[in-house]
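note to self — DONT lose this again. spent like an hour looking for the file last time. sequence + predicted structure for the chain T wanted, 196 res
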Amino acid sequence: MTLLEPPDTSARFPLEQVVCTTLRKIEPSSAAVFFDASPWGCGALLVEEGVPTGFFEHRWSQADADSLDASIGKPKSQTTFEYLALLLVLMVWADSFTQAGFAVLGDNVSSLSCAVSFKGKGPLSKISREIAWRKVRRHWRYSVAHVPSESNKVADALSRLAAPPGSEQRSFPALALRGARRHHVPHLQTWWPASA
């Protein structure tokens, strides 16, 4: 798959876990969000019936990093930023799929494992509590699964738009996102005070 091709939503998902009390399985081919994070930002691509229909890109602010004791631009905070990106995906799209459900696909196994277990240490625990609370209150219905990095190129490019020039910075994947609607990420400080 190249950056310009739509992601393969028919692949088998080894970590799939339905995070909801339901008997009906979510079909990943109907709606899936591919997400990724870098130490500078995150990005996500919504694919419905094989067609990219939405996306977002978000640059980490110092307030985002301070809320989670993370460091912008430092690889040591990668799992924290990946898990925060997963929460942002849910905040942007989960309310739209409470009936049919949707698949959330990322390439960081540690953050996906936290999303399945609702556990994690330090900042990961803080994100887990937020996801668990919102999932129950808002009746979110989704599955979480791993996707290989090579199948996540559009989200990866979006996550690296904020990287400094000469590092891992990528160009905006305009051709791959043609016709897809840009979604905006809620301002994090409106729901997560730095002192929490």
